[in-house]
Amino acid sequence: MDADEGLGRLRVLGFGEADAQELWAHFDGAERRGKQGHGHARIPWLEGLEGYDASAEPTLIEEEDGFQRWHGRGAIGYLVLGRVVRAQLASPPAHARLVVCERTFPTGMLGHNVRRLAECGLVGVLTATSPRRLGHPDGGAKLAGTNPLAIGIPSSGGDPIVADVSMGAITWGDVVAGLRREDELVPFGGEQAHKAFALALGLQLLVDSLVTQPGHGAVLLVARPDADPVPALRATGIRLPGH
Q: What's the CA gap between 44 and 34, in Å, rounded?
């Protein structure tokens, strides 16, 4: 899928030009990084998705020193996080800020968002919930989403380090893209899968405890760094996350 086709299909869905461009940048960026489950396949997926308003505008509903609460207001989660990131870049915290995003789904490749922060000199840690698709490795009900965790660390030496890890052995995006089967979506780790399940459940409860309304949400920690550890790490010559 090229940009003309992708943008055209997003416009048909009712997204304004700026939002269509933002969505395409997210999907195409994922595709170029080899994350096909979060890439171009998400456009036909959106064409069959219900429950969002292409014209809705996310809103900052609560703010105090070191804290913000946003509400999606029916907007698709990708664009909620896009607004949130732009707001942090426009007015960075003095030291650190916790941002809670209500009614924010789907959110896609979370690394896309922390990368934008890190490229502008801010540390970002972001997680988001999704439909409950992971159960305990021993069996039982699905209790947690795949609940990815993305961390972006800026660097004076160039590209930031971006780690973006889902708690599933595969991603739901792989299923959406037709690359894997849904029954393969289990906590990663094999014999140690209980660790991934515990982290998925912990992230689920973290977000659920901070949102005030039921529904999927996201939590972002954004901070100004006080040190610059990435160049020394890159000097080891080891292949690092985020490329």
A: 18
